[in-house]
Amino acid sequence: MSYRASAVERLVTGGIYALMFLICVVTLYPFLYILSTSLASSNVPLTQIQLIPPEISLESYRRVLEYPLIGIGYCNTIVRTVLGTFLSVLVTLMMAYPLSKKYFPHRTFWTGLVVFTMFFSGGIIPNYILVRSLGLMNTVWALVLPELVSAFNLVIVRNFMMSLPDSLEESAKIDGANDITILFRIVLPICKPIIATIALWVAVWHWNSWFDSLIYATRAENQVVQLVMRRIVLEGSQNSMSLSAQMNRQNEIVTPENLKAATIMVTTIPILLVYPFVQKYFVKGIMIGSLKG
Amino acid sequence: MAAASSLFKRYALQKASPGERGVFQQYWKHRHLFLLLLPGLVYFIVFRYLPIYGLTIAFKDFRFLEGIWGSPWVGLDVFQNVFSRADFWEVFRNTFLLSIYKLIFGFAPPILFALLLNEIRNAFYKKAVQTISYLPHFVSWVVLGGLFIQFLSPSIGPINILLKAMGLKAIYFLGDPKWFRTTLVVTDIWKSMGWGSIIYLASLSNIDTAMYEAADIDGANRWQKMRSITLPSLSPVITIMLILAVGKLVNDNFDQIFNMYNPAVYSVGDVLGTYTYREGLENMSYSYATAVELFKNVIAFALVYSANKIAGKINEYGIW
């Protein structure tokens, strides 16, 4: 290999490194901008926001956290995420087990019933009519039940269970344990890795969901935090005005823009903190999904 | 329990015909398994199959008080109404245009990103770049909508401040019909490029390194290796992803548009999803909105099917 070729090589490699760095900057910049805006004191003109604002104030955050609907919204989000994830995993697990048994009667039919829903669904309006007819409006059930079991997750758990050796349960069967006991005592502990993965997917999905809350929660106190944020930031000139008008402590004025930025940060920070640790489980999901697709 | 079971067996043996008895006994034998299946089964019937039955309101004049069953059939009147409205066709056009733009401009970036990332040998740097590039995927459009409204603001947004400093006019990225589509496409690429590269990176890591070593011995340069080894190895994945992308042509990124659009840009940014939402849930035209959505799903199905057919003709990688 000649000297010139290697110089060109090195130049290209350097270029790629630099380009990757640039992509990272472009990805992060909007977030950093909002972070700086949320931290800037209202004395800093909004047209002069810098990465590290000349005057930092946590007043916007204090206001946002004191705004009652944010706290309530967070509670609603946490409740739906915890309850929804727990029930989803439980029902998925219970349903996958019989479908993984070759001797279960009409197994193909029952599995087909599930797989069919991957390709056909009712869509927004029939779902809305159903939830309303069942009287679930403004309850947490409207957010938990409609997406309780994903056919995709069910198939993944079922395939995992099918790969387990039969000998596991045979000895328990001889001891007179029934299928329910076997599932919860023997099979469940072995399925822990796949359960953790699915629980994570469902939990992140619940945390980020907002549209169902928009249509099923008509009262402000039933809405999830993403929606409260949406109302403050998108529709919310009134909300943010009233927020910035709350002269509850010393007469420090907070501009609506600082407040909106703080609201965005308050709703995003949990995800920012958690996602580096959970991303690998999501990558796994893509891999499984692509094998299927 | 034991007594009941023996009673049941005797009853089943007396009352049932031979074939039926077999099935009954089968389920009785596996009653615990069936019990485990039951909650999920009830869920699927209520929350998956009832809404599919609910699609019939596209052929009815649906009124809430009479319910789905009680509303009168009107045949294809609703669809006639849909196809006769000018706003429907505008929305239909927007949906297609926007999706095609996203396909044209958004399909290649994840592939290029994966290829460039693959050239990076420093494992730590590679991991860091990957992790950062995944970030936008985990933030929902409802948050990003709020973020971009502020970030792209003509008065305080950094891009426009820069433009104004250069003596140019501020651009109303989210309020000007001329710019709205561009904004949607660019922000969508910004959000999905890193995450979309995963699948390609995985395929790249599966390529046999012996091929590269052989190419090195033959004195192939980086570009030649990419052309003769890397890209051909990626082509099956690229084909599958392209089929899936074509299938999504009518799937209109409702979340993104709903959180970024406003009446000023309906003429270019209103798509089937947002239109369905407004017509159905704001104007309460349930039948109308359902008909629109049903039409959308039929088109989507036809698209996936034909894309797959075409791909099957080109090479042997189909999705079914």
Automatic annotation (TrEMBL), chain A:
Domain of life from the UniProt record: Bacteria
Membrane topology annotation: Multi-pass membrane protein
Subcellular location, principal: membrane
Domain ABC transmembrane type-1: 74-278
Any GO BP: transmembrane transport
Compartments where located: Cell membrane
SUPFAM superfamilies for this protein: MetI-like
Transmembrane parts of this sequence: 12-35, 78-97, 109-129, 141-161, 182-204, 259-278
Alphabetized UniProt keyword annotations: Cell membrane, Membrane, Transmembrane, Transmembrane helix, Transport
GO cellular component: plasma membrane
Keyword Amino-acid biosynthesis recorded: no
The family this protein is said to belong to: Belongs to the binding-protein-dependent transport system permease family.
Protein name: Carbohydrate ABC transporter membrane protein 2 (CUT1 family)
Native species: Hydrogenispora ethanolica
UniProtKB/TrEMBL annotation, chain B:
Alphabetic keyword roster: Cell membrane, Membrane, Transmembrane, Transmembrane helix, Transport
Residues spanning the membrane: 33-50, 96-117, 138-159, 229-250
Name by which UniProt lists this protein: Putative aldouronate transport system permease protein
Domain ABC transmembrane type-1: 92-305
Membrane topology: Multi-pass membrane protein
InterPro entries listed in its UniProt record: MetI-like, MetI-like_sf, UgpAE/MalFG_permease
Primary localisation category: membrane
CDD domains attached to this UniProt entry: TM_PBP2
Cellular component annotations (GO), alphabetically ordered: plasma membrane
Matches recorded under PANTHER family: BLL4140 PROTEIN
Cell compartments where the protein resides: Cell membrane
Pfam families assigned: BPD_transp_1
Family statement: Belongs to the binding-protein-dependent transport system permease family.
